[in-house]
From TrEMBL:
Domain GST C-terminal residues, every copy: 90-213
UniProt similarity note: Belongs to the GST superfamily.
Pfam families for this protein: GST_C (PF00043), GST_N (PF02798)
Residue span(s) of domain GST N-terminal: 1-87
Domain of life: Bacteria
PANTHER family in the record: DISULFIDE-BOND OXIDOREDUCTASE YFCG, GLUTATHIONE S-TRANSFERASE-RELATED
InterPro entries, alphabetized: Glutathione-S-Trfase_C-like, Glutathione-S-Trfase_C_sf, Glutathione_S-Trfase, Glutathione_S-Trfase_N, GST_C, Thioredoxin-like_sf
UniProt-recorded name of the protein: Glutathione S-transferase N-terminal domain-containing protein
Length: 232
């Protein structure tokens, strides 16, 4: 059984998408980041960076003690290796998947996240920051669009590379992007959105819909952390 420490963010959706796709049993443990659940000592033991998602695998393949994993990319890779699904075994194909997984982790996620921040959460509108991150998000969309021009999925067969990127495209409107500008990406996005596992994963989020983040209340909690927050 997998315990999934989860909230309804793009990174949280990645893990429910994977688990639904492969049919691995799991239990959701909600971590309401707007209420500060991510700072509870019991969660920090699993995720020392106070971020969701995180998992605890109570049946690791070595049959030893439970294994905890934080960081969504690491979780996807761990679960793919555990199940042998959604990641190729041949070295060249595996390299293709991994580089696009890390592309999302190092590029699309952080840049789209800053896009969201300066468009929605920042207490003052800073044109330079907004333009910087809207344009960079668009550039990354174009990179993905070009990649998908001659293939159905990002790295051959459907894989954790697709699962990692998809939830960061879902809020494209709030990122000031138009899918019509990226036809290959749009085709890919619509295909993934109709997969039964994707539908089930996003249905899981509906249970927490009424606990959505309040911009004013959550700004101090989410965006004003420092070294003092972590402590020594």
């Amino acid at each position: 059984m997998i315990e999934l420490y989860y909230w309804t963010t793009p990174n949280g959706h990645k893990i429910t998408m994977f688990l639904e796709e492969v049919g691995l049993p799991y239990t959701i443990i909600p971590v309401n980041i707007g209420a500060g659940d991510q700072f509870k000592p019991e969660f920090l033991k699993i995720s020392p960076n106070n971020r969701i998602p995180a998992i605890v695998d109570h049946e690791p393949v070595d049959q030893g003690a439970p294994i905890s994993v934080f960081e969504s990319g690491a979780i996807l890779l761990y679960l793919a290796d555990k199940t042998g699904e959604l990641i190729p075994q041949k070295i060249r194909d595996r390299a293709e998947v991994l580089q696009w997984l890390f592309w999302q982790m190092g590029g699309l996620g952080p840049m789209a996240g800053q896009n969201h921040h300066f468009n929605k959460y920042a207490p003052e509108k800073i044109d330079y920051a907004i333009n910087r991150y809207v344009n960079e998000t668009g550039r990354l969309y174009a990179v993905l669009n070009k990649r998908l021009a001659d293939r159905e999925f990002v790295a051959g067969d459907y894989s954790i590379a697709d699962i990692a990127a998809y939830p960061w495209i879902v809020p494209y409107e709030s990122q000031n992007q138009k899918l019509e500008d990226f036809p290959h990406l749009k085709r890919w996005f619509e295909a993934i959105g109709t997969r039964p596992a994707t539908i089930r994963a996003y249905e899981k989020a509906e249970a927490f819909k009424n606990q959505a983040l309040d911009v004013e209340k959550s700004r101090e909690l989410l965006f004003n952390q420092s070294a003092n927050t972590v402590g020594r």
